[in-house]
Amino acid sequence: MSTKPRKSRPAEVYEDYRSRSGWYLAAWRDYAGLTLEDLAAELGRSKGYISDLETGAVRTGRPATRFNRDLIEQVAGVVGTTGGRLIDVNPFNLNDQMERLSSVIARLDEAGQQAVLSMAESWAARTGTDG
User: Fold this and answer.
1) Are residues 77 and 102 in the same domain?
2) Which tens digits make up the pLDDT trace of 42-98?
3) How many angstroms separate the CA atoms of 65 and 59, rounded?
4) Residues 127, 103 share a domain
5) CB neighbours (10 Å) of residue 32?
6) Which of 21, 78, 85, 120 has the lowest tally of Cβ within 10 angstroms?
7) In angstroms, what CA-CA distances link 96 with 8, 43, 91?
8) In-domain check, residue 1
9) Same domain for 77 and 127
10) How many separate domains does the chain show?
């Protein structure tokens, strides 16, 4: 797998991604520093299949390549996010600290999540940043 560091992209790159049906896959793959080959290997799919997903390409004589929930969850796991975030969030606009915090919280059980939320609310109230 590629070890290319994550970095911010100019707005026009993001807009180029959004012009494609699978823009979120392309954006998150790029953000994670993965090539088409890397993601294809991780998912056990072909490079062409991933490219078709990203571009919405339809090949002659074959049905359109489409996402389904299982595939979205698999891709999300590979790129280090959730299925919902994969579809809804531009990874190049992320705050890295918030991403790390979100990742930690997601691994906690409900009681742990509530404890972190209470601690954060208490901290915000003490520092005068509670809104």
Assistant:
1) no
2) 999 999 889 888 887 777 677 666 778 898 999 999 998 888 888 888 887 777 777
3) 9
4) yes
5) 20
6) 120
7) 11, 25, 10
8) no
9) no
10) 2
